[in-house]
Amino acid sequence: MKVLVTGSSGHLGEALVRTLQAQRREVLGIDIRAGAFTHLVGTITERAFVRRCMKGVGTVLHTAALHKPHVATHSRQDFVDVNITGTLNLLEEAVASGVTAFVCTSTTSVFGDALVPPSGEPAAWVTEDVPELPKNIYGVTKAAAEDLCQLFARNHSLRAIVLRTSRFFPEADDNRMVRETYADANAKTNEFLYRRVDIEDVVSAHLVAAHRAPSAPFAKYIISATTPFSRDDAVELRNHAPLVVRRYAPEYPAEYARRGWKMIPGIDRVYVNDRARAELGWQPRHDFRALIARLKVDDDIRSPLAREVGGKGYYDRIFGDGPYPVE
Predict the structure, then answer these.
(1) Rounded alpha-carbon distances, angstroms, from residue 149 to 6, 62, 128, 138
(2) Residues 89-92: contacts with CB within 8 Å, 24+ apart?
(3) Closest CA to 201 of 270, 285, 108, 279
(4) Rounded-to-integer distance, Cα 124 and Cα 235, Å
(5) What angle do CA 138, 94, 139 make, to 5 degrees?
(6) What percent of the residues of the chain are helix, what percent strand, and what percent coil, each to the nearest 5?
(7) What is the CA radius of gyration of the chain?
(8) Rounded to whole angstroms, how far apart are CA atoms 222 and 238?
(9) Which of 87, 111, 210, 326 has its CA 20 to 30 A from that of 100?
(10) pLDDT tens-digit profile of 51-60?
(11) CATH code of domain 2-298
(12) How far is residue 182's CA from residue 265's CA, in Å, rounded to a whole number?
């Protein structure tokens, strides 16, 4: 049956459509913006549009959303309309059409303030059991969308899986200090230790989740690169990250020195993907040690799919300070 991909002109949506088409799957990409991998232009906030798109669909991969970069330029009502009402429209029409698998892309931003422990405390070890403490309208509406998925799984027997993804966007960091301190590839490579994932692995997570969904009524999973650390490292990571990283990746200092790169002095949280690997059978390929191996042969740290999708940006205009405005 047909796979419906929402947000198909965005980073992840395009990557999913590209991959599904390469597998010769029947796929329908929808987005509010036209794009090479978008077949129908429209908004998920319009129920009639969603109903038309759902015909013949067996699997929904729901990536469309307003994101953190939109917080300073869009109203809270905009976030509610897209992230909550849009998700509700998709869920209701999915039930009406007999969809067998619904995969909702969420975010580690739902953890919010739980991600930054107080000064002097160990790095946060972030699993699916950490409570949500969203700190902005983006996190609040994504958490609400997750709850809607769970409601429909419980009350309407819709097989739904939520994937909480960490960073995979290629744009420069929104934090000026990070941009001024680290080369872009340096900053992103550092993040693969604790808070970043390659888009190829995000795509594979969605596809295995869609396959798993018919036998799993509801579940939430963190989708991030496999960290080399263990929970026992949490205290030392907070203030002495380079020492810990050297134990797990002794080749990294030479490769960093060759490029004039720097390791971050401390890590405040670590996203843990153990449950997704164990329960979904997800096998992510891109982690810090894999990137160091690529650097040794002067290869690109990005997967081929990440290079193909490239940067999308979140706006058509340029802002004076950073890739997008923040509050």
Answers:
(1) 15, 11, 16, 17
(2) 89/44, 89/45, 89/46, 89/47, 89/50, 90/6, 90/44, 90/50, 90/54, 90/60, 90/62, 91/148, 91/149, 91/152, 91/158, 91/160, 92/47, 92/152
(3) 285
(4) 9
(5) 10
(6) 45, 15, 40
(7) 19
(8) 21
(9) 111
(10) 999 999 999 9
(11) 3.40.50.720
(12) 12
Rounded to whole angstroms, the Cα distance separating 75 from 10 reads 20
The residue assigned the tokens 């923040």 is 326
114: tokens are 């739980």
What are the structure tokens assigned to 117, written together? 């422990």
Distance between CA atoms of residues 86 and 105, nearest Å: 13
Q: How do residues 98-132 score in pLDDT, each as one tens digit?
A: 999 999 999 999 999 999 899 889 999 999 999 99
Give 196's contacts (C-beta < 8 A, 6+ positions apart). 166, 167, 168, 188, 224, 225
Quick one: how far is CA 257 from the chain centroid? 30
The token pair that represents 69 in the structure block? 């970069």
β-pairing, 57-62 vs 269-271, is unpaired
**Helix (H) and strand (E) counts for the chain?**
13, 9
Domain ranges of the chain: 2-298
How far is the C-alpha of 163 from the C-alpha of 105, rounded, in Å? 5
pTM of the model: 0.95
